[in-house]
Design brief:
By secondary structure, the chain is an alpha+beta fold. The protein folds into two domains: 162 residues, no CATH class; 81 residues, Orthogonal Bundle (Helix Hairpins). 67% of the residues lie in helices and 9% in strands. It has seven helices and four strands. A four-stranded antiparallel sheet has the order 1-4-3-2. Helix 2 packs parallel to helix 4, helix 5 runs parallel beside helix 6 and helix 6 packs antiparallel against helix 7. The radius of gyration is 45 Å and the shape is rod-shaped. The mean pLDDT is 82.
Length: 290
């Protein structure tokens, strides 16, 4: 029942079906590779880099807790943790985003948000709208803080390149496959046109080309057409001979009846005319069929 329902949505032509057979495995393979890479490799790398930043943020929070006041937080962090290359700025509660900011296609951003939310108790929100920088908002004893660091420290650089290369080369190879498939199906279309023309009584020049199987089918069609044409020619010659053989006795009968009395010969002449008419009709029908 499933295949009966699916058959209504399948392509009708051999080109569409062959293209579907060619394209479907490529698309499925690319999707599977993308999902596996995103889950096993890219997500794992992002988690490892996020864990490294988490340890640095915890260190920064310890230094912030040791600061004497909120105004002294940036200088304290800069003096003690200058090697981290991380900016710390106290902000007001109104400046903290109420929700995480990121692009809809930012897969690594979702992984980072989940990681921070799970392992950083002071986490408030994350701003990933800037191209190269990350703004992490956390809660300290002096109020909200804005921690700034580079995006490359927390996620892989240009992760979309693999996806772009995969789909670009897949699309390019699919186009090449379509061109090759079209060239392979062209001999089949030529064979179909030649067979259709021969069925309508026209002789279209045809030479077998293409793959071995298509050449074999084309050679079989050429041989079949030649045999049918020879059979038609032989039947035409036979009908011509039958016409000559039957017309001669009818003509002789007509001449013999012309010597008989007209009243007695009239019914017989009518029969001869009927036989002549039936013979002509049969020969015309046979020649028309040929």
């Amino acid at each position: 029942m499933f295949f009966v329902w699916l058959k209504r949505y399948m392509p009708r032509g051999i080109y569409g079906r062959a293209a579907l057979i060619l394209l479907l495995p490529v698309v499925i393979l690319q999707l599977v590779m993308t999902v596996i890479f995103a889950q096993r490799n890219y997500e794992g790398v992002t988690n490892q880099m996020t864990d490294t930043v988490l340890r640095e943020v915890e260190l920064v929070m310890q230094v912030v807790d040791d600061a004497p006041s909120a105004a002294a937080v940036p200088a304290t962090v800069q003096d003690r943790l200058a090697a981290l290359d991380m900016g710390v700025t106290p902000v007001s509660a109104s400046e903290v985003p109420t929700r995480n900011r990121m692009s809809w296609y930012d897969y690594s951003g979702r992984v980072m948000v989940a990681r921070f939310d799970e392992y950083l108790p002071s986490f408030l929100s994350l701003d990933l709208t800037r191209p190269t920088g990350v703004h992490l908002y956390v809660q300290s004893r002096f109020g909200p803080l804005d921690l700034q660091f580079e995006r490359r420290r927390i996620s892989a650089q240009n992760p979309h390149q693999l996806f772009v290369y995969t789909f670009s080369f897949g699309f390019f190879m699919t186009l090449i496959s379509f061109v090759y498939l079209r060239n392979q199906l062209r001999p089949i279309k030529r064979l179909a046109r030649a067979a259709e023309a021969f069925g309508r009584g026209r002789h279209v020049p045809y030479t077998p080309t293409g793959a071995v199987e298509v050449r074999a089918a084309g050679a079989a069609f050429v041989d079949m057409r030649a045999r049918i044409e020879r059979q038609i020619e032989q039947r035409t010659l036979m009908l011509s001979g039958v016409s000559h053989d039957l017309r001669t006795p009818l003509t002789r009968m007509r001449l013999g009846l012309s010597m008989i009395d007209e009243d007695d010969a009239e019914p017989l002449l009518q029969d001869v005319d009927d036989m002549q008419g039936m013979l002509d009709a049969f020969l015309d029908f046979a020649k028309g069929t040929a």
